[in-house]
Amino acid sequence: MRQILALIIALMLMPAALPALAQDDAQALNEAGKAALTRGDVTTAARIFQQLTDADDPNGMNNLGLLYYTGQGVSQDRALAFTLYKRSADHPDMVKPQASYHTGIAYLLGHVVPRDASAAITYLTRAAEMDFAPAEYELGQLYLSEPGIADPAQALKYFKSAAIHDYPAAAYEAGRMLVIGQGTAADLPWALIHLDVAAQAGIADAYFLLGVLAEWEYRAGGPMDVAVEWYAKAEAAGIEEAAIRRWETEHIGPPTNWQQAEYRLARNDPVGAFPFLVRSCAIGEIYGCYYQALALADGNGVPQDRYTALSMFENLCDETVEFGCGEFARTALFLGGSAGVSRNQAAQRTFQGECGTDNLAADSCYSVALMSWDDRFGLRNEALARQYADLSCQLRSTNNEACQMQRHFQIEDRWRDFSQQDALSKSAEPDFLEGLLYGLVVGAAGQSGTGNAATHYGELARQRENARTQFAIEAMRPGSQHYGACPTVNSPGC
């Protein structure tokens, strides 16, 4: 202890920047600074952490950053706090997660620096790799809903990991996702385990969701009192809907057709759910109709019937049920020309509305391009196809279909420019482009005939190459109208 005090006094008296401290000395000083902070001596804590920062100690930087962020022992300066956090996080000797976490949070919230989700992920990931639960939780939230980044499977992974590291809020999120099958297949046994952990920590939303699950059990013949108990806890914690659900559980009586279907769907029993969906839809319950149509479209628990599903989604869309419009558009896209031109037009309008609005934007933009180019849909519009292929590729550069379509439009333009000078190629060019783009679109759409299209494309490409060669030979013959255009057969543009 005397050695530590002597070191602290020496550091306090030194006016200039210090050389790097030995690891043990730096650790001892950081502990002394935290002890001073604990007993309320913020001035001493700030002085110690400043000396450590001057000596290039990353933990001291982080601790001093915390003081500047909160204004303890120093004048509050969040810009300086961020600088210290980032210096600490980027320091080669930093082995603790806090500085990376604080830096990531600053980028996430847009405090002091412009909001940058990618930078936030970089720093939060560093902290998460050190099993820092708060960073894992924030990564889960980012991957859950951040536009352009959203990946429910990744979100669930981080929530589960944070839950293992004793973070109850993450346990709730993992439980909720496992209930509804977000990022994975629904798994009620594991959902209950995570939700119970969250409930034990006093998270009100966990009370409510456990009440919902217990109500499902009651609707299927289980006990009533479990649901009532969870709803009562949620109500006491301030969730108003819990009071309504508790009263309904106690007084409304037997389950509705939709409740029976919902219960079975949640337990991955589509066969058992379907008759209740039909009955629910017959009396005008929107969710009953929606899930019946989904079952028919996917062939889940019932023979597949996309045409009936299309009509049901169309009716829902006509009733301004937004999620019905999206499924209508995607079903029409799959059916192609057999859906009918008017329906394809409506589907295309839906995709145009979705383009640029959410994390499905790139796919929706590409759908507009495909429907505008593929003759099967009866909506031929090359300008629109080009526009939306460009948008889709810009939104997600890994969107191979859209970017491939964009590249082939560019190829088409180059050959069109070339053909203005190349009379010999004009006869081959239309067929070549037809085969090229047909093969692209048909292949991207996953339709049959891709092999034939590829064969056709190969043959036309050979025709094109022959035309180029003939042009080059002609251009090298003195007296030719094209003389001088191509020094050799392999010259650019030849």
Summarize the structure.
The protein contains 25 helices and no strands. It is mainly α and 494 residues long.
How does this structure look, described?
The protein is mostly helical. The chain has a domain at 421-494. Helices cover 71% and strands 0% of the residues. The chain is built from 25 helices and no strands. It has helices at residues 2-13, 23-38, 42-54, 58-70, 78-90, 98-109, 117-128, 133-145, 152-164, 168-180, 188-200, 204-219, 225-236, 240-251, 257-266, 270-282, 286-298, 306-318, 322-335, 341-354, 361-373, 382-395, 400-419, 429-445, 450-476. The longest helix has 27 residues, at 450-476. The model is unreliable at 1-18, 423-434, 440-457, 471-476 and 480-494 (pLDDT under 50).
Radius of gyration over C-alpha positions, nearest whole angstrom: 32 Å
As an assembly, this protein is single chain
Give the helices and strands as they follow along the chain. HHHHHHHHHHHHHHHHHHHHHHHHH
Portion in helices: over 70%
Helix count equals 25
Report the sheet-strand fraction.
Answer: under 5%
Q: Count the strands?
A: 0
The computed structural class is: mainly alpha
Mean pLDDT: 81
